[in-house]
Amino acid sequence: MRPYIDKKNKMTQQIYLGLFIIFFIFSLLQVGILDERIFQAFSRVENLLKGMVPPAISEPIDVAGAAVESLQVAVMGTLWGVVFSIVLAMFAAKNVSPHISISYAVKAFAAFVRAVPALIWALLFIVAIGLGPTPGILALAVNSIGMLMKVYAEAIEEIDTGIIDALKATGASQFQVVMQGIIPSIMSIFISWSIFRFDINIRYAAVLGVVGAGGIGWELVRASRVMAYDEVLGITLVIFGMILLAELVTRFLKDRADMATLKAME
Amino acid sequence: MSEVVLETKDLSMVFPDGTQALKNVTLTIKKGELVSIIGPSGAGKSTFMRSLNMLNKPTDGQIVFEGENVLKARGKQLRQIRRRIGMVFQHFNLIKRSPTYQNVLHGRLGYMPSLKGGLGRFSEEDTRQALEILRRVGLEDQAFKRADELSGGQQQRVGIARAIAQTPSLLLADEPIASLDPSSSENVMTYLKNVCQEDGLTSIVNLHQVDFAKKFAHRIIGIKAGEVVFDGSPKELTEGITNHLYYSK
């Protein structure tokens, strides 16, 4: 039996490998990555690079304002995402949901929301609300809900049913069971996922402006339209600095959260 | 000693998969009695106990607790019954990340408005009471530690303290010492018996160690395959009966 299974597995592997190689060659021919345009592009890239150096920021106050707006969009988007996710997670987690069908419905909603990228949400909200930071915030919040609700619900489903029983047995109401039993039990998972999501949202917030949802991305588009390549580089550096700073902050927060978890393990 | 606290009539439970966990259990528990339920694993001891406060729902029969029909109770009425029944669990079931005194305060949740209790705004009086109860179970030094920093035996004493904080008229303990070492078991059972006697509590304790049951209880009930097969004083529990309970088919 054993050699037969090995042989069969090997054959499956070879089929997959073959299919992959065929697809790769097909893509290469179709898309033509080795286009002659790439070789012709050198002179243009040279011009572009010359235009970029030295980087410049013509209106520092506007750019700084836009950078702060991006941060605000990220913070607000994460905050609303976290708040709605925690509430929805209580209905999504099978062990606390009022009914199993509600759990499936909420989880299906989350899967749908997750499947649509943040940029598409931003475009939809811009159509509905208009340009500016508000559609950006909504897009990030909705996109965060898709992910956070799933991980929160999974954390809740993994907690010991015994603690729910114990609090119910004291005569506690459902709200009290959630607030006094479930939330303290998932707190560290909750914090580390929320911080992780904030990290993602900062990156998104920088890009969302490209489609007109507020923030520094819009400045980038504006500069590239007028071919002010020195400014494009300047703004890119600002974005880079912003994300770096945010990463330092989230790493610090995460270390703190991990410390608390480590202390708990002792 | 004659007032009836709890009465079950023909209590039966069939699990969805068809297993009959309880068969016509009819019992009367009087005020102040310390009752031990013994029997092999899977005999239905836990199922019976969890039925009493509706942590699982019996399929047939009746439970009357202090004159109230437990099986008919819903929502607020059920919560008001539950808060008068303290429960201690095999795995302690404490909120591990919350401090010890807060775990004791959870015993007060049933007496508080939902919002106030949910936000953990316990009154000063309740907090003082909680610390006093911790002192009674010998844990006043551990009051502000996180529950999971305590040893198993200590955690179970917090479990007892939480149940006592409910000022219950009935205390249920479901295998309270099954996951503890022998010396902690001894210790926990002593505390359990002491608080029951000091407060004149009625108590039902599931145990599978017959010697602990004999030491603890005034009355022993033997359950086998979901049926009551023995009900009497510890003296009446002979070796023959124990053997029948645990070993014979």
TrEMBL record, chain A:
Q: Report any Pfam family annotated for this entry.
A: BPD_transp_1
Q: Which family does it belong to?
A: Belongs to the binding-protein-dependent transport system permease family.
Q: Which InterPro entries match?
A: MetI-like, MetI-like_sf, PhnE/PtxC
Q: Which residues form a coiled coil?
A: none
Q: Which Gene3D superfamilies match?
A: MetI-like
UniProt-listed PANTHER family: ABC TRANSPORT SYSTEM PERMEASE PROTEIN P69 (PTHR30043:SF1), PHOSPHONATES TRANSPORT SYSTEM PERMEASE PROTEIN (PTHR30043)
Q: How does it sit in the membrane?
A: Multi-pass membrane protein
Intracellular or extracellular location(s): Cell membrane
Name the chain's protein. Phosphonate transport system permease protein
Q: Which residues form the ABC transmembrane type-1 domain?
A: 67-250
GO CC field: plasma membrane
The organism encoding this protein is Salipaludibacillus aurantiacus
* Taxonomy, superkingdom: Bacteria
List the transmembrane segments. Answer: 15-34, 73-93, 105-131, 177-196, 202-221, 233-253
State the Gene Ontology terms under molecular function. ABC-type phosphonate transporter activity
Q: Which UniProt key words apply to this protein?
A: Cell membrane, Membrane, Transmembrane, Transmembrane helix, Transport
UniProtKB/TrEMBL annotation, chain B:
Q: Which SUPFAM superfamilies match?
A: P-loop containing nucleoside triphosphate hydrolases
GO MF annotations in UniProt:
ABC-type phosphonate transporter activity; ATP binding; ATP hydrolysis activity
- The answer, when asked if Zinc-finger is one of the entry's keywords, is no
Give the GO cellular component terms, alphabetically.
membrane
ABC transporter domain boundaries: 6-248
Keywords of the record, alphabetical order, are:
ATP-binding, Cell membrane, Membrane, Nucleotide-binding, Phosphonate transport, Translocase, Transport
Q: Which domain of life is it from?
A: Bacteria
Q: Which InterPro entries match?
A: AAA+_ATPase, ABC_transporter-like_ATP-bd, ABC_transporter-like_CS, ABC_transpr_PhnC, MetN_ABC_transporter-like, P-loop_NTPase
> Do you know which CDD domains this protein is assigned to?
ABC_PhnC_transporter (cd03256)
Please state what the protein is called.
Phosphonate transport system ATP-binding protein
